[in-house]
Amino acid sequence: MSHVTRDFTATTFIVQDERTLLLFHKEIRLWLPPGGHIDRDELPCDAAVREVREETGLEVALLSSRSCMGTVEVLSRPECILLEQIGP
Questions:
Q1: How far apart are the C-alpha atoms of 61 and 29, rounded to whole Å?
Q2: 11-45, pLDDT tens digit by residue?
Q3: Rounded to whole angstroms, what are the CA distances from 37 to 17, 67, 68, 82?
């Protein structure tokens, strides 16, 4: 049995004037919103903003924001979470 790893990514939908920004992914030949792999020890919300900056040059802010619950940080809530199974 081959080992399957879990690979988490962050994707950000940039919407303005009822239009959504998409980028053409050359490897899989699809139009997709900006996004990419979450680095080790990186928070998903930070990865989402970083990926947009790296792929488009845009500085964005997420609609949902971080907050605190006492001394514990509450992170931005994702709209959805996708899990991709990566084989060898």
A1: 28
A2: 999 999 999 999 999 998 999 999 998 999 999 99
A3: 28, 24, 26, 12
